[in-house]
Amino acid sequence: MRMDRGDGVELAYAYAPGRAPTLVFLPGFMSDMTGEKATMLAEHAAGLGHACLRLDYSGHGASGGQFIYGTIGTWTRDALFLIDSLTQGPLLLVGSSMGGWIALLVALARPDRVTGLVGIAAAPDFTETLVWQSLMPEEQTTLLRDGLLRVPSAYGGEQIFTKALVEDGRDHLLMGAPIPITCPVRLLQGQRDDDVPWETAIKLAARLESADVGITLIKDATHRFSRPGELELLRQVVTTLLHEREVLF
Hints:
Shape: globular
Strand order of the largest sheet: 1-2-4-3-5-6-9-10
CATH class: Alpha Beta
Order of helices and strands: EEEHEHEHEHHEEHEHEH
């Protein structure tokens, strides 16, 4: 299914109705809603009778728009548009990698609705700490001069970083101050993650104002976090948060 966000760009999504809280899956950078984690959670939510929303940001997956024009702000607004248009009541957000950053921004924008948040290798501020600060001086020069930089991806093909992505990311940095999110948060992180250092989860937990923050480190898990045992852990964490919130609503 697709919905025009109001400017001619159609956003792709998959929504299954059910009881609250609605599980919302937010994918990572250059990823989409068809991955193993997303589809597993959609099936799991259906089995529990909970509503579920999966989505593709503009320029990702089946959505319209060009990837190079996207930014953290753009993709957060995409997520909020679909959430506000398609769902009602309490939300449980599950964000993978960049989706973890967007989940935090959505929770800050809708504090009265978000009753739980799960980050899988959550990558807040990655455009600054994992992109800009990791570039060689000549790469930074190229990015600023040409407006974009193409680098090989460990998963095949290439990744594209734009000047707009980095500059807009600076308007949404979270890790330099306390983060006023008070709902339960669960952070799942592999210690063999070559993309997001596992220490990020520790730092994020320290910044969150919530008193109910749990971190699970899997020593041999990578950034994909999609092996059967890791998916089962994610399933259990989501089940617990859905049932805890269900008591209140």
